[in-house]
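Record type: monomer structure entry
Structure origin: computed from sequence
Chain ID: A
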Amino acid sequence: MVESVREQLLASHEESRRLASEHNLYSQRLHSLIEKRYLTEDEKLEEVRLKKLKLRVKDQMQMIEQEHGREAQVA
C-alpha cells in the first residue's frame, strides 16, 4: 500500500519528485564520503549536514504520503 502511494506520488506530484531527487543526491554524496578512509574536518561537517538534510527531506516525503493516503481514504 505505502509503495503504491509513493509510486503514484512520484508519477503525479511535482513536489514528491523534487524531494525524491534531493534525497537521492544527498544519499549519493553521503555514500562518496563514507567510502573515504579518512574525512577532513570539513567533510565530517558536511556528512552531518547531509544526514540532517536527508532526514528532513524523508520526513517531508512521508508527510506528503500520509496526506495523500488520508485524501484517498476520504474519497
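Annotation 1: DSSP finds three helices and no strands in the chain.
Annotation 2: The CA atoms of residues 11 and 27 lie 21 Å apart.
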